[in-house]
């Protein structure tokens, strides 16, 4: 087991060049908590979610990352105030090579693989992920991790 809050802090350090160059402010609200998981694989999960939050945000925005404990689960929420995802595309974003409206994203690079990898890694762990989003308002990706007894 390892400290999830420390892992998230490290992911923030790793991605500093990306959020710094867009003048994005990262706000953290991290409950200290230990989890049982493959640390290297989970590094990939946080990197992909944080990279997306930065990529799909405008300059000078904030991104909020929180760890909370709710109804017997650890919840990690990555919230951005960026371009958002249309309602009818929400279910598709975890598919391989899926990108929302290619013309809208034309200037943003990526293969549409990050979230499918996130989903796969979480499924291996029996963790889950939810997404809430509104176009031009922002997106929140929430990872649910059961608390081991
Ligand atoms: P890659 O991660 O492979 O570099 P990608 O970011 O395009 O490329 P995913 O991370 O799988 O691919 O995301 C799939 C699509 O979901 C994105 O192309 C984008 O349209 C949409 N998306 C993902 N995260 C966000 C977000 N935080 N805000 C808005 N749209 C998002
Ligand atoms: Mg991505």
TrEMBL record:
Location of this chain's protein in the cell: Cell membrane
Domain of life: Bacteria
Histidine kinase domain residues: 1-149
Role description: Member of the two-component regulatory system HssS/HssR involved in intracellular heme homeostasis and tempering of staphylococcal virulence. HssS functions as a heme sensor histidine kinase which is autophosphorylated at a histidine residue and transfers its phosphate group to an aspartate residue of HssR. HssR/HssS activates the expression of hrtAB, an efflux pump, in response to extracellular heme, hemin, hemoglobin or blood.
Protein name: Heme sensor protein HssS
Gene source species: Ornithinibacillus halotolerans
Full-protein interval shown: 305 to 453 of 453
